[in-house]
Amino acid sequence: MSQLADAALHGAIMTHQASIPLTARIAAQSHFRTLRLGTPFQPRLDALAKTQDWYNWAGYRAPHSLWDEELEYFAIRSQAALFDISPMTKYRIEGPDAQAFLDRVTLRDVTKLRTGRVHYTAWCDDEGFVLDDGTLFRLSPTRFRLCSQERHLPWLLDSALGFDVIVEEETEAVAGLALQGPTSFAVLRDAGFAGVERLKIFDLAEFPHDGGTAIISRTGFTGDLGYELFVPAEKALSLWDRLMTAGELRGIRAIGYTALNRARLEAGLIVANADFTTAEHAIRADRSRMPDEIGLGFMIDLEKGHFNGRRAILEARAKRKLRHVLVGLEIEGNIPAEHAIVYHRESQEVGLVSAAMWSPMAKRNIAIASLARPYGDTVVEDLWVEIYAMRELQYQKLMKRAKVVARPFIKLDRRTANPPADF
């Protein structure tokens, strides 16, 4: 291209850019840094977001924290905390064969799940490796809601061949909130949800809200007294305002994921693709995990008929082919050991810490770790973690003793108290 033509082209481009409004040009330049989707609660979250600390949750703009991650954690444990769970993937599974279909693809016996109940479950590929874990809500004899971390619609649709069932993703259509903490029941009662005191742990029921209904379940991810609420997306803001108004005198506060993550660790709960790698995300063959390798073996119901991965799971158990175990650790000192390597006798590498914290409730340095068997299984003595602590702009290597302990690390009676405590 000649210099004259090049100059003319450059001038045309500059003229075109100048004709675009400045705000549009800035947006175009930063689009790759901007998370596209907002949840139905985004206007309320944006108004409260003092830290502007956002992350990408399944394509949604979600807060790590909103005002102070330390105080947000204590809001869970001492008052009532509101957390937006709308980005959680949600599927409507409905039809005459819905129960049979879910019994076929998930580990637990769905025939034992009564209407108005929720259970925690997981599902595997044909090789017995975990694809994901999540919660299954039975809304009626033929209608379920499956909630999960990852998206599985193609797999679910393929698995539904031969079943008289409808599988539909409803993530965008259904807004969700987690209300957790000791005053959560009192907030719901004061908000006018009459009869909510009758909900036992893992119960669900429908309640009137804004000309429609809200589904409230006594579930959560904190190990505390808590509830999860689901409404159509267009009713989201009215639900948020109803709860915030009712909870004002009881210290209700909105929180981000960092606080929730600390609470779930104290409760000994695991997160897909954080504490274990799901089968569809595993690039290396040895990274996938079977249910027995991540503490989900209790879900497997061998009394029911065939389910995905059954043969492979039974073979692994019979032939002792299970390679890993997920354990709780208590570590000396008070420096969190997140992503620390675990050693046996300070020399042999045997595993990795996936989540760790100093627990204000347990008053212990706790962690979840994946170890190579027999370590953490039959060999539990002389375990160590390698921690690198920043001390005055220099990392200091610390070798700290660790011992295998039971999960959950804390157990709060108020979580299961019936009727719920009125704080």
TrEMBL record:
InterPro entries: GcvT/YgfZ/DmdA (IPR028896), GcvT/YgfZ_C (IPR029043), GcvT_C (IPR013977), GCVT_N (IPR006222), TrmE/GcvT-like (IPR027266). One of its GO terms (biological process) is methylation. GO terms for molecular function: methyltransferase activity. Pfam families: GCV_T (PF01571), GCV_T_C (PF08669). Substrate binds at E228. Gene3D superfamilies: Probable tRNA modification gtpase trme, domain 1. Residues 326-411 form the Aminomethyltransferase C-terminal domain. Keywords: Methyltransferase, Transferase. It comes from the Bacteria. The keyword rRNA processing does not apply. Residues 70-304 form the GCVT N-terminal domain. This is Glycine cleavage system T protein (Aminomethyltransferase).
